[in-house]
Amino acid sequence: MAQWCDKQISKAVLGQTMTTEDGLSRAQPSVHNEVREVIIKWDARQLSATFNEYLVNPYTLLNYGEQERYPQVNIELPKPEDLKPFVDAIKEMVDRWLKVLTEDVLAKFGIAQAEAGDEVLHALSAPVNDIALNRQGNRAKRKHLALNRRNDKVNGEAEIDAMVVEVMSNWVEVGGEFINPILKLAKNAKSLSGTERRLGRTT
């Protein structure tokens, strides 16, 4: 008898019993939850109408007299936002070295910034290595991996500078044999036309 009464009360208040009792499938709770949301929205509209009729309108008449249009109170329910696309986008931006403010991300989730001395959450395990152990090799080989394949935290600008220095260290000037006579001719020339004539004879 008590169980039957509980179900009747749930139906009267929530319109269904699935959100307060166990169901038989995953589809039933989803449907019943939608019914519950419809009832909540209806209650919000009725509550707004009550505020407008018995609070807002009398207050306006008492303080400002009769009006052509009266203020309205509208109670709106916040719509839940799926933050997974936002998290995926942030991960892509961070992986591509874009600078994202931590405050903006925390504000999106409504999480306060931790201060010194606050107890914070930590990962249960270390991140999985992206490169297989048999492909890592020694540190000298890993130095030549592309930046987007490095699994350790590096300074992008420092890495690029190191690559430039390494490439330029093997550079050898090979144009001296043909460019030096031309430079000597231009240095000893007294006029542009004379330089052109002598350059023509040289070539």
Provide structural commentary.
With 203 residues, the protein is an all-alpha fold. The chain has helices at residues 2-14, 27-64, 84-95, 102-109, 133-136, 139-142, 156-168, 176-188, 192-202. It is elongated, with a radius of gyration of 38 Å.
Which short descriptors sum up this protein?
about 200 residues; mainly alpha; 2 domains; about 55% helix; elongated
Report a brief summary of the structure.
With 203 residues, this protein is an all-alpha fold. The chain has helices at residues 2-14, 27-64, 84-95, 102-109, 133-136, 139-142, 156-168, 176-188, 192-202.
List the helices and strands and how they pair.
Blueprint lengths: L1 H13 L12 H38 L19 H12 L6 H8 L23 H4 L2 H4 L13 H13 L7 H13 L3 H11 L1
- Give the overall average pLDDT: 75
Q: Kindly provide the radius of gyration, computed on alpha-carbon positions and rounded to a whole number of angstroms.
A: 38 Å
Write the H/E string, N to C: HHHHHHHHH
The N- and C-terminal alpha carbons lie at a distance of 115 Å
What would the principal axes of the Cα set say about the shape?
elongated
The residue ranges in which pLDDT falls below 50 over 5 or more consecutive positions are: 135-142
Helix content: 55-70%
Number of strands: 0
